[in-house]
UniProtKB/TrEMBL annotation:
InterPro entries: Gfo/Idh/MocA-like_OxRdtase_N (IPR000683), Gfo/Idh/MocA_Oxidoreductase (IPR052515), GFO_IDH_MocA-like_dom (IPR055170), NAD(P)-bd_dom_sf (IPR036291). Residues 7-119 form the Gfo/Idh/MocA-like oxidoreductase N-terminal domain. Transmembrane segments: none annotated. This is Gfo/Idh/MocA family oxidoreductase. It comes from the Bacteria. Residues 134-258 form the GFO/IDH/MocA-like oxidoreductase domain. GO terms for molecular function: nucleotide binding. Signal peptide: none annotated. PANTHER family: D-GLUCOSIDE 3-DEHYDROGENASE, UDP-N-ACETYL-2-AMINO-2-DEOXY-D-GLUCURONATE OXIDASE.
């Protein structure tokens, strides 16, 4: 298959699925083409006919049709594991949209099935991992050049969503239909990147505001403090009601600091020695000079700033290209599906912490306690059946 195009089945021809269909039909992913489309909305058949590909109203029929080598699941979050499991069990490579599941138990079930089929490619659509800025930061942090992590914070509040956004789909912003708010809809990319870059936290204490500035049952603002162990901590803040919005990531290490603004501009500051050595060896006269603002900062550190610009759209194309290359056996996956559980677990732990009012372990996360609390809210909502 190394020289063939991968035939992708798009399950769910909504905003995301439609965007992927456009990229593929325009030839922007040279090693992939549309094999078929599935959607429960019969009116989407016309779009499939225009593209010249088969259309199915049942995703299972698409998977078993022989028309596709792989599928992407662009459907409500709860359905990703169900569809992913069915595809993998029927010999079809699987790319699930983020998140891989709403709760860790269902995410783990999907990941376990994928592990039983190592001959198949299983990925998650973390398109931000293809951003050259974050790829470069990952390489820098993995190199150890900046030393150990001390603290990191991410303020990501540029997810402004007006009230009509939540009214456009009945499942949107419900516990039973979507499984949460900003943590499961907008912020999974940052939750993934944060752990990809800094490591998986050990515990979290979170304050969530449910329906704070929007008429919804789920959270529209999150403030969380995480513990990475060895004294390293982090804070994460996100919201959907900030019209101005901020996207700022800071990572402080022993030998320097990284600051990212708007996911496009990065400033990297490198200390001439690790901070504790500089602190220990600085004489009092140098300290006075520093406090008077007279010390040449270049004697302590150097900084460089790089603007990567916007790469919107290209990120999604690169995920599809990389996934097809992995199916063809020519490249490793940038975002293996198994990585998806980390963000789900962190989000679930934030919910559980807010619901219980205490710090929650991520290392030994109690997924049954989380599911029990989630089901309480689904029952109170009265719109959907409980989850198991």
């Amino acid at each position: 298959m190394a020289t063939d195009q991968v035939r992708l089945g798009i399950i769910g021809l909504g905003t995301e699925g439609g965007m992927y269909a456009t990229f593929l039909s325009e030839g922007k992913v040279p090693n992939m083409r549309i094999g078929a489309i599935a959607d429960i909305d019969e009116s989407k058949r016309e779009a499939a006919e225009k593209l010249g590909v088969p259309f199915y109203t049942d995703y299972q029929e698409l998977i078993t049709s022989g028309d596709v080598d792989a599928v992407v699941t662009t459907v409500p979050h709860y359905l990703h594991p169900e569809m992913g499991i069915y595809a993998l069990e029927h010999g079809v490579h699987t790319l699930v949209e983020k998140p891989v599941g709403v709760y860790t138990k269902q995410a783990r079930e999907l990941i376990d099935v994928a592990a039983e089929h190592p001959e198949l490619t299983f990925g998650v659509f973390f398109n931000q991992r293809t951003n050259p800025l974050y790829k470069d930061l990952k390489a820098l942090l993995d190199s150890g050049e900046l030393g150990a992590l001390r603290h990191t914070s991410w303020i990501i509040t540029n997810w402004w969503r007006p009230q009509p956004y939540y009214a456009q789909s009945s499942w949107r912003a419900t516990w039973g239909g979507e499984g949460g708010g900003v943590l499961v809809n907008q912020a999974p990319h940052q939750l993934d990147l944060w752990q990809w870059l800094c490591g998986v936290p050990k515990s979290v204490f979170a304050k969530l505001s449910f329906g704070f500035r929007r008429d919804i049952a789920v959270e529209d603002e999150v403030n969380a403090l995480v513990d990475f162990g060895d004294g390293a901590t982090g804070s994460f803040m996100t919201a959907t009601h900030d019209l101005v919005g901020t996207d700022r990531l800071e990572i402080l290490c022993d030998k320097g600091k990284i600051v990212v603004d708007e996911s496009s501009k990065v400033t990297i500051t490198r200390l001439v020695e690790d901070e504790e050595t500089l602190s220990r060896n600085m004489d009092i006269e140098t300290v006075r000079t520093l406090f008077r603002g007279e010390l040449d900062r270049e004697s302590l550190m150097t900084s460089e700033t790089k603007d990567y610009g916007s790469v919107w759209g290209q990120q999604h194309i690169e995920v599809l290209r990389n996934f097809a290359a992995a199916v063809q056996g020519t490249e490793p996956l940038l975002a293996p599906g198994g990585d998806g559980i980390h963000g789900v677990r962190l989000a679930d732990a934030m919910y559980l912490s807010a619901w219980l009012g205490r710090e929650v372990s991520i290392e030994n996360f109690d997924e049954e306690a989380y599911l029990e609390e989630l089901n309480k809210r689904i029952v109170a909502e009265g719109l959907y059946e409980t989850r198991s």
